[in-house]
Amino acid sequence: MPELPEVETIKRELEKSVLGKKITEVCVYNPRVIREPSVEKFKKELVGVSIKNIARKGKLLILELSNGKSLTIHLKMTGQLVYPGTGKAARVIFHLSDGKTLDFNDQRLFAELRLRDDWHSLPFVQGLGPEPFDITVGQFKEMLSKKKTKIKPLLMDQTFISGIGNLYAAEALFRAKIRPERSASSLADKEAGLLYSEIKNTLLEAIQHKGSSVDNYVQLSGKPGDYVRFHKAYGREGKPCFVCKTPIKRIALGGRGTYFCPKCQQ
Ligand SMILES: [Zn+2]
What we know:
This protein is an alpha+beta fold. It is 27% helix and 22% strand. Strand 10 and strand 11 form a beta hairpin. The longest helix has 20 residues, at 189-208.
């Protein structure tokens, strides 16, 4: 699933390519991805408006429009935005005033598109925890100290901290040398501090490399992101740890495949 670096990559690319353009036509090929309002209303209210601003909140993309409304896009598992579009696998096609299209693809149909008066009032948005870049190390330590839950599922809990998913939680914990199943409140002060900086370092590096193309994620151009080759734990089961050569282990934790080095991470 696209996480903060992937969604941020798409946001920056949308800013370069579709900002200020007008939506001239909307073709819906699978109505299931449109969660609100009705498909008819969705199409009617989008035609003729221009894209005024692109925002991101956690893993949510927001296109703010000239009619005061906002189009929110949650890519979930397999959602993609592609510009210029090819029309090949599109569930929704947005025709733009430059004669090109913005394709919304979604193989598994879990994604959610909404057209709303106000995106801030979405219950999902209201429940989001702060992003790693919006808190200080002191605040992060304070947040952890109150939680007895396991650290990896906690990092993935969007109501606790937003933007991190299965992939970057595994990478940050590897770099901070912390076992994924440790209780959050058991982290020593130094460990929590290191985790805080490694979360931010990991996310920033991933943004630099335009995200990780696992599953279906692609950049806006349709090209894959480049960060997979820098992964140290995620997806490396049985391969030697880059630090100590011990094979990376995979366990199920909170229902998710979790990769770690049994020697380096304590
Ligand atoms: Zn190791």
